[in-house]
Design brief:
Layout lengths: L1 H14 L3 H22 L14 H5 L4 H23 L5 H36 L1 E4 L13 H6 L2 E4 L5 H17 L12 H30 L3 H19 L28
Antiparallel strand pairs: 1-2
Length: 271
C-alpha cells in the first residue's frame, strides 16, 4: 500500500497543472511525422512489434476503447461524487446527478469511436479495388467492400485511414483530461477510497503509456504517412472539439473540474 501511495503522489505531481496534457498533442504529431520518415527510409529494424498479432496489439489496441471505457467508468464515478460532496458540499441527489452528467463523456466518446470507425471503413471501401492473389496480371475486379474481397482471398487496395492513430491519440488525450480532476480532489490518506483511486490512477497512467507506445509502433511499422497523419488529426480534433469547446457549454457532459471560472489560475483548462 505504501508503494501504491508513493506511485500515486508521484503521478499526481507529474500531471500537475496539465503539463503532460498540453504537450502530448504535439508529441503525437511529431511521432507520426518522424516515425513515417524512418519507415519510408527503411531505418526501422525488424521486431516482433511489426507483427499485427503481437500480444499488445491483440489484447490491448484491438480493444483500446473497451480498456479506456472500463477504467474511466469507475474513476469518473468515484472522483466526481467525492468532489461534489467534499468540495462543493452537494447533497447525495445533486452529487449523483453530477456523476451521471459527467459519465455522459463516456457516451460521447463511444459515439465518436463508433462513427469515426464506420467513416474509416466507408472511405476504404469507397476508394479501394480488389486484386486476387496469385493473379497479378488480372485486372482489378469490382467488389463492393473489403470484406467481400477478402472472402475471395483478394487484396484490397484502398485509402486506409489509420484507426490506431485515431483511437490511441483520442483515448490518451481523454484519459489525461479526466485525470485533471485529481488537482482539486483531496481524500484522506487512510481511507479505502484513496486506495481505490490510486489503483485506478496507476492503471490509467499505465494504459496511457501503452497507448502512446503502440502509437509509436504504428508510426514506425504500419500505414502510409497521409493515413497516419489524417488518423491522428481526427483523433485530436475529436478531443479538442469536446473537451476544449463543447464541454465548456452548459448543455454538455461538462469538464472534470466543474464550477471553476475560466479566468482562474487554478483552472487547468484555461487556454
Amino acid at each position: 500500500m505504501e508503494r501504491l501511495e508513493r506511485s500515486g503522489r508521484w503521478l499526481r505531481a507529474a500531471l500537475a497543472r496539465g503539463r503532460v496534457r498540453r504537450r502530448l498533442p504535439a508529441l503525437l504529431l511529431a511521432i507520426a511525422v518522424l516515425g513515417s520518415a524512418l519507415k519510408d527510409s527503411d531505418l526501422v529494424p525488424d521486431t516482433p512489434l511489426q507483427n499485427k498479432r503481437n500480444p499488445l496489439n491483440v489484447y490491448f489496441v484491438k480493444v483500446a476503447w473497451a480498456w479506456t471505457l472500463w477504467l474511466l467508468l469507475p474513476f469518473i464515478t468515484l472522483t466526481t461524487y467525492e468532489l461534489a460532496r467534499s468540495k462543493f458540499l452537494y447533497g447525495r441527489a445533486k452529487s449523483a446527478l453530477l456523476v451521471l452528467r459527467r459519465l455522459g463523456a463516456l457516451l460521447v466518446g463511444t459515439a465518436v469511436w463508433y462513427l469515426c470507425t464506420e467513416l474509416f471503413i466507408y472511405v476504404e471501401n469507397l476508394t479501394g479495388q480488389c486484386s486476387l492473389q496469385g493473379k497479378p496480371r488480372q485486372p482489378p475486379r469490382l467488389y463492393a467492400s473489403k470484406r467481400e474481397c477478402h472472402q475471395d482471398s483478394g487484396v484490397w487496395n484502398g485509402f486506409d485511414i489509420s484507426g490506431h492513430c485515431f483511437l490511441l491519440s483520442y483515448c490518451a488525450m481523454m484519459i489525461l483530461e479526466e485525470l485533471a480532476v485529481l488537482e482539486a480532489l483531496s481524500v484522506d490518506h487512510s481511507s479505502k477510497l484513496r486506495v481505490v483511486i490510486n489503483v485506478l490512477l496507476v492503471s490509467l497512467c499505465f494504459l496511457t503509456v501503452i497507448w502512446v507506445f503502440m502509437f509509436l509502433c504504428t508510426a514506425l511499422y504500419f500505414h502510409d504517412f497521409s493515413q497516419k497523419l489524417l488518423g491522428v488529426l481526427i483523433g485530436l480534433s475529436a478531443w479538442y472539439g469536446t473537451y476544449r469547446f463543447w464541454y465548456l457549454k452548459p448543455f454538455s457532459p461538462g469538464l472534470p473540474l466543474p464550477n471553476i471560472p475560466l479566468s482562474s489560475k487554478k483552472y487547468s483548462y484555461s487556454r
